[in-house]
Amino acid sequence: MASASAFEYAPAPESRSVVDIAPSYGLFIDGEFTEAADGKVFKTVSPSTEEVLSEVAQAGAEDVDRAVKAARRAFEKWSALPGSERAKYLFRIARIIQERSRELAVLETLDNGKPIKETRDADLPLVAAHFFYYAGWADKLDHAGFGANPRPLGVAGQVIPWNFPLLMLAWKIAPALATGNTVVLKPAETTPLSALFFADICRQAGLPKGVVNILPGYGDAGAALVEHPDVNKVAFTGSTAVGKAIARQVAGTDKKVTLELGGKGANIVFDDAPIDQAVEGVVTGIFFNQGQVCCAGSRLLVQESIHDELLDSLKRRLSTLRLGDPLDKNTDIGAINSAEQLSRITSLVEQGEAEGAERWSPACALPSSGYWFAPTLFTNVTQAHTIARDEIFGPVLSVLTFRTPDEAVAKANNSQYGLSAGIWTEKGSRILAVASKLRAGVIWSNTFNKFDPTSPFGGYKESGFGREGGRHGLEAYLDV
Amino acid sequence: MPTTAPALGDVTASDSTLRRFLHGLPGVDTVGLEARAASLGTRSIKTTAKAYAIDLAISMVDLTTLEGADTPGKVRALGAKAVHPDPTDRTTPTTAAVCVYPDMVATAKDAVAGSGVKVASVATAFPAGRAALDVKLADVHDAVAAGADEIDMVIDRGAFLAGKYMKVYDEITAVKEACGTSARLKVIFETGELSTYDNIRRASWLGMLAGADFIKTSTGKVAVNATPANTLLMLEAVRDFRAQTGVQVGVKPAGGIRTTKDAIKFLVLVNETAGADWLDNHWFRFGASSLLNDLLMQRQKLATGRYSGPDYVTVD
């Protein structure tokens, strides 16, 4: 979808040869790869080509039980290690991730469909950074502000989504191990491969058996893990619907829970904003990872006085986005993760049109195979539209207007979600005034979708509870 | 005198209207601007696109010598190189121009006669710009009379930083008038001395309002010259100016661009910011002296598959 130009960039595909994907993978339990107890397997496909990448063992309840038992056995020794010893393993894992980052970036792009540019420049550096960061905490837990000698919880059951497979794994596993917990993690059924490669990295790092267990599988495996009586801590990132089910499941037990759920982030652009950078921020906010980001800035709230000007700039900018082969280094927009997700996006967009919002996409040829959706924006959207309320989890931006800062705050907060928000203005006092009134876990000013291991992340309202990242992220894995 | 395009109203009517207009331009967020420039710098340009980009970049070079020690011999050698950048390969495009001091214009004109290569001259008390307006205008008249096709003028940074925008505006319009119809005017801001991105955006609009045919980053004589970020900002300014007035203005980053890799990054900025309409040496130039040889060596490498080395390009 490059702009018409004499300067057409030649294809610049990243080499697939840096990654060696086996035809089949097992579950990773107690330091070994093993078949599922009932022998079930499923296929994982590349969303950009629909090519089958590998066949993966599918965990069931029996496998969950085996893995939790292994984690329980490992917990005794792992939690008794001095923090400085655990730190050594985590530093080793972080370094191996850095050394293998090109391989992991290509793998993630193949399995997830997101552009190599993002896996290479955003995901993998952050994955390594999380392990480094929490490795640094492992021997300093006495000084984390939770009192002397805070205790780990035990076995952590972790369920992660498909949008940032390896990064969400890092967010979950790094703090859990640093604080002395052991882990059973279920990656999403559409993106199991990078977690299985991570299992190999654990072996490479000499991590004791059973400390990390990886169980690819579907929702039933996730449910079995959450329900397992010997799991002490449940950490979930994913949809609000599943999050609610998990909350019901663990209610009345002594399990600790953190939930990172959906979002409908408001990106608020005031009339004195740095317009060119705001346009970039809006693009980053909603088209990063094809909008499949829980903290995406999917609602653009623009001050009415600059609406037309901003929309012109935004449309011009969208016309320069390059959609296509995610392994091409020049690709900005990759494939949607699955056929199921694509149909969800499609139906919500159709609903937006039916409810009277105005749909626009740049002229854009979509590849013939794979799951693709052109970057889309809707104008004339109001708070009453479904597309202003429901999380679409795709490259679809809803544009609303406001007249005053108070109205901006009221509209931004008028959502069942509260994960992220953005404020664009050159006026520093306005940033502080507005930010203090927004009900969202992360608020960016004059930037968007910036992540750092030192910064806590989490939501208000139906976006979940608990924090990941930073010192706060330790609390979720400690008995405090 | 050029008049302001009607779309903008009478913003140059007085000191205060001009100030209000320039200070009312959208702000620039430093972090965001530099991040965008850096991200465009990661575009991977290969094979046919690279060959195209190298030839385009060569055709956009203002081959420059601006030394106190410049002699006719040096200028003639430079002119010859501009006409035939690579004597071993006559398919190499000519450069856009040679850029010299005013007293060398006649020599340069002679050296490039008949080739289509333009002669640009840095007039207006280059590089400091610290002289009376009469002196600057005399400098321009000299250069134009000697046949200069393009005048590169420096603005009075002192006046700009002191907030005397009207003084800067008046100087540019006077120089533009002195250029007459025969010479195009490039206005140099010396972005390193203007220091902030907000200032660079204001200077860009000020220059365009005053009738600049080109806006140019720098003289190449200070510590910070052209950068991807300040060039990106100026490309946004010309793009927005054309959208509002219909008038297209060129952009010339100058100083510090030494490698093919850098030059291609700038072309990517042009392509994805202002657009393909600027991918032409009528609208985009590189002010550079050492860039050309690297472009030529990379061009030879694409043609032969081997990297030849500095002895295979001329030293001029």
Structure in words:
The complex is a heterodimer of chains A (480) and B (316). Chain A is of the alpha/beta class. Chain A has helices spanning 61-80, 83-99, 101-112, 116-137, 165-178, 193-204, 219-227, 240-250, 275-287, 307-318, 339-354, 386-389, 405-413, 428-435, 472-475, and strands spanning 24-25, 27-29, 32-34, 41-45, 52-57, 151-152, 155-159, 182-186, 212-214, 233-237, 256-260, 266-269, 299-303, 358-360, 376-379, 396-402, 417-418, 420-424, 442-445, 460-461, 464-465, 478-479. In chain A, helix 9 crosses helix 10. The longest helix of chain A is centred in the N-terminal third of the chain and has 22 residues, at 116-137. Chain A is globular. The mean pLDDT of chain A is 97. An 8-stranded parallel beta sheet of chain B has the order 7-6-5-4-3-2-1-8. Chain B contains 13 helices and 8 strands. Chain B has helices at residues 15-23, 30-40, 47-59, 72-83, 105-111, 133-145, 157-161, 165-179, 191-194, 197-209, 228-245, 260-274, 291-304; strands at 61-64, 97-100, 118-122, 150-154, 184-188, 214-216, 250-252, 286-288. The chains are: A alpha/beta (480), B alpha/beta (316). The interface between A and B is medium-sized, with 27 and 29 residues.
In a nutshell, what does this entry contain?
Chain A has about 475 residues and is α/β, with parallel strands linked by helices. Chain A has helices at about 60-80, 85-100, 100-110, 115-135, 165-180, 195-205, 220-225, 240-250, 275-285, 305-320, 340-355, 385-390, 405-415, 430-435, 470-475; strands at about 25, 25-30, 30-35, 40-45, 50-55, 150, 155-160, 180-185, 210-215, 235, 255-260, 265-270, 300-305, 360, 375-380, 395-400, 415-420, 420-425, 440-445, 460, 465, 480. Chain A is globular and about 65 Å long.
Produce the secondary structure layout.
The complex is a heterodimer of chains A (480) and B (316).
Chain A: E1 24-25, E2 27-29, E3 32-34, E4 41-45, E5 52-57, H1 61-80, H2 83-99, H3 101-112, H4 116-137, E6 151-152, E7 155-159, H5 165-178, E8 182-186, H6 193-204, E9 212-214, H7 219-227, E10 233-237, H8 240-250, E11 256-260, E12 266-269, H9 275-287, E13 299-303, H10 307-318, H11 339-354, E14 358-360, E15 376-379, H12 386-389, E16 396-402, H13 405-413, E17 417-418, E18 420-424, H14 428-435, E19 442-445, E20 460-461, E21 464-465, H15 472-475, E22 478-479
Parallel strand pairs in A: 1-5, 7-8, 7-10, 8-9, 10-11, 12-13, 12-18, 13-16, 15-16, 18-19
Antiparallel strand pairs in A: 2-3, 4-5, 6-22, 11-21, 14-15, 17-20
Helix pairs in contact in A: 1-7, 2-4, 3-4, 4-5, 9-10
Chain B: H1 15-23, H2 30-40, H3 47-59, E1 61-64, H4 72-83, E2 97-100, H5 105-111, E3 118-122, H6 133-145, E4 150-154, H7 157-161, H8 165-179, E5 184-188, H9 191-194, H10 197-209, E6 214-216, H11 228-245, E7 250-252, H12 260-274, E8 286-288, H13 291-304
Parallel strand pairs in B: 1-2, 1-8, 2-3, 3-4, 4-5, 5-6, 6-7
